[in-house]
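Input (GTPase HflX):
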Amino acid sequence: MFDRYEAGETAVLVHIDFSDEDSREDLLELQLLVDSAGARSVGVITGSRRAPDRKFFLGTGKAEELAALVAATEANVVIFNHALSPAQERNLEILCQCRVLDRTTLILDIFAQRARTHEGKLQVELAQLRHMSTRLVRGWTHLERQKGGIGLRGPGETQLETDRRLLRGRIKSINRRLEKVDKQREQSRRARQRSDLTTVSLVGYTNAGKSTLFNALTTSEVYAADQLFATLDPTLRKLELDNGAVFLADTVGFIRHLPHELVAAFKATLQETRQADLLLHVVDCADDNMNDNFEQVQEVLKEIEADEIPQLLVCNKIDLLEEIGPKIDFDPEGRPYRVWISAQKGLGLDLLKQAVDQLTAATIVELSLRIPAMAGHYLGQFYRLDAIQQKEYDDLGNCILSIRLPQPDWHRLVKQSQGELETFILEPEIDKVVC
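Output:
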């Protein structure tokens, strides 16, 4: 059996540029992630390849250069800005004689440090266990077969099989507990829907200033810092506007190539984004990678099926730019689509409230539907959304429904039904949007 090396505070970073645009990462972002994790960079290995090397990811020559740099700097961890296979991690650890982490493991470690609530800790543990399940074999190669003899006969499982069974049991246990959390959140969402208050969710790339903006708008004291993933647990506050109050939600920031383990584990948290009526997409307009970060967030929103929700682009940190002041940009129909602000300096917050007020003034849809008996499964969906206002049946057994629900929920149901729900609408002239 080999002992896993301890990951310490001094790190050598590895960044490879690939010809494939989809595989490229940002070296500056890796350095920010390392700083957020509490480690100190003592060296960087860079290079270019067409495709990863199967054994060392970065090629034999570069791998030897990496090992020499680790020895020279006495670094105790190597951090790759890419996803490594279990075999690549093990080969690099043998070569460098220190712990090797990939980008996914680094992000999971940051999440583990940031988790504050019981739910957040469960979600992080679930993501870590799913990631760990593919890497168990490396630590137990000496027990691939149990030996016979007195005192060595066991239940017939190898140690690896035992670990995998225990891991599966723990994952099931966490999933059951998170399902309860999800039900509790769903009850809270239904209560908010019954109160007819619109939900506005802050989304954006990590460290774009979402929590600072949340605090400035709601006078709250949510933890905000100049570091990646400062916020993990969603927080909701009521925000008073001219046309009434709305619920404002602060959520976890996104990042390019967000690990799928996190997307799956944070399903309950991301529901706050999926169920929102309006998304405030906060971008750091002083960041040179603003456009790229914007596209990365759009990809994650699509992955969690939140891309159909109306968005208002919030260009934050204008205090770091010259000749740009607070303002609202309107589309040809006179609706705001972009607001320029500085959450840190409090610039343009009144303009942002004005834009949100205008966009949330018409987000509730009222419809009358004739649901055929063969399509009765849609009733359950409307019940879960607490959208049914009135229900009766005609002589043919069709269900005549009057529903009232947020516009994004209706659009999402139409998308899931592949447009079938739209064919059930009665008297299109009463399909209206109300305040």
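The chain has 13 helices and 15 strands.
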